[in-house]
Each structure stands twice: as structure tokens, then as C-alpha cells.
Amino acid sequence: MARTAARVRDPAKGPLRKTAAQGGQVQSLDRAISILERLAESDGMSLTDLSQSVGLAPSTTHRLLTTLQQRRFADFDDEYGVWVVGVGAFNVGNAFLRSRKIISLGRPVMRRLMEEVGETINLAVEDKGELVYVTQFESHAPMRAFFRPGRRAPMHSSAIGKAMLAEMDGNALRDFLQKRGMQRFTDHTIVDPTVLREQLRQIRQRGWGVDDEEHTVGMRCVAATVHNEHGEVIAGISISGPSVRVTQGRLGELGAKVVAAAEKVTEQIGGIVPRSLRSGAD
Q1: Cα separation of 32 and 54, whole Å?
Q2: Residue 280 pLDDT more than 70?
Q3: Among 122, 127, 190, 185, which residue's Cα sits nearest to residue 162?
Q4: Which of 107, 215, 219, 210 lies closest to 165, judged by CA?
Q5: Do the beta carbons of residue 274 and residue 281 sit within 8 Å?
Q6: Quick one: which H or E segment has residue 122?
Q7: pLDDT at residue 8 above 80?
Q8: What pLDDT, in 10s, does the model give residues 136-175?
Q9: Strand, helix or coil at 148?
Q10: CB atoms within 10 A of CB 32
Q11: What percentage of the chain reaches a pLDDT higher than 90?
Q12: Angstrom distance (rounded) from CA 131 to CA 234
């Protein structure tokens, strides 16, 4: 792991200089954040598994965990013998959610859509080339889709991700695919850039994307994008459910409904729907 040193100003010399103590503090902070990220991806981890996951000695990991525990960012589950995310992390995460009006304004639209179509509705944003699911309304059906808030997913094999990729220009899309790759998850996953580009062209024409069992066997999703005041894509809304209910024959109906919902959220946050992006032009 690269070591990043903090800088302080020397009153006598004027220029900034590094201090080893502050460099060590930055490294500890980086390691603590890595630990929190691993805990957030799981339902709890033992000290051994966690230390191996972040590449630190168990003693170092335990020292950082106890510090996080004191600040309520981590906690130890005595019953299962694992470390979990603490309520302090939840409080900080809530501050992020409060700052994103798209979530508070979007949830009523998502609830109505869930009640109308009977399937799970998700809202996701892009972060560092991946999707992050930030909120959800679960279907009431016994068999339903579930995406844990904070879960990350690849763009090329998800309905929201492909709807977002469809709004990239050709050069940006090429660079993205070269950097991220196209991992195969099921027999339906698109791993050929040429095939993906053709599907993205179709998405631009009709306005909605599809995950046809491309990430999870037996699950289909239909999605459309949400835009800001500049017409830039900032999020996506999807309808997700078992393929036995979200059939090929329903895709057109569900696609129209999710587009309408995404446009409603765009309107409520003061955004602009860029109609030109759905003209079918490459």
C-alpha cells in the first residue's frame, strides 16, 4: 500500500514539509477505512478473516478495530464472534443520504411504481465505474429481488448500468470497457464489446435497459436513467423480479413504466430529460 504523508507549513522556511508522525496518522486512517469497507460488504467477519482481507497483521487490525469500536464505527458481536459495522457508520451514512435529495424525492415515486407493477424497485448511482444501490422498495411477493443498500454491481451486466453506459460517447465507452473489462457471471452475460454496443444503441432508441439474467440466473431487471439540471445522468431506477414474472412479454410495458418513473424523479429534482440521447444516434 502506498504511503501518503501529510504536509505542514514550516513558519521559518515557508514551504510545506512532511512529518513522519502525520504520515503515520494518514496511513492508519487509510487502513481503518479499508477495514470499514470490508465490514460493510459482509454481515460480519472474524478478526482472522478481516486481517487477511485487508492485508494487515491481526494485531494491527485488532488495534484499529478497537479504536473504531470506541467511536462506535465498529462493534463486536459476542454471540457469533464476528466484527460488524457500528451505529456510528450508520449515522455518517445517513448524512450522505440527507444530502442527496434524489433519494428523499425519489422514494415516493419508487413506492408507487412498486405497488403498480408488484416488483422490487431500486435506485442506484455510479461510483468509480460500478453501480452502488442506495435505496429500494421490496416487492410484497414471497419470491422477490433484494439488493442490500450499499451493494456494488458491475455496469455491463445490470439494467441500470447499461442504461447509463448508453449515454456515454463512443470514446468514453471504449476507455471504460478497456479499464473495467467485461466479466462473465452467467451464460447470458454480454462479454463482447460489439454486442454490447449494439444493445446500447437499442437502449438509446427505446429509452430503457434490460438485464436478462445477465448477472443472476432467474432474475430480470428493466431500468431507466435519472438526470440533473444539466441533463447529465446521475442515477438509475430499475424494476427487478424473477424471470417467471418479469417475462419477455412484459418488458415493453415495464420499460415504459420505469421510464415514466425516472422522468418523474428527474422533474422533481429540477433535472432535464435529454431527449436527444434517446434519438438512436450513435
Answers
A1: 10
A2: no
A3: 190
A4: 210
A5: no
A6: strand 120-127
A7: no
A8: 888 887 766 766 777 889 999 999 999 999 999 888 999 9
A9: coil
A10: 20
A11: 57
A12: 11
Q: What amino acid is encoded at 212 in this protein? A: D
CA-closest candidate to residue 256, choices 103, 113, 106: 113
Residues 6+ apart with CB under 8 A from 123: 102, 103, 106, 107, 110, 133, 134, 135, 136, 235, 236, 237
Question: Which H helix or E strand runs over 70?
Answer: helix 58-70
pLDDT winner (highest mean) among 61-75, 82-96, 142-156 = 61-75
pLDDT given for residue 123 in this prediction: 95
- Distance, CA of 26 to CA of 28 (rounded, Å): 5
Residues in the chain: 282
At 51, list the grid cell.
486481517
Q: Are 124 and 135 in contact (CB under 8 A)?
A: no
Residue 54: DSSP 8-state: H
What is the helix (H) or strand (E) element at residue 109, kind and residue range?
helix 101-117
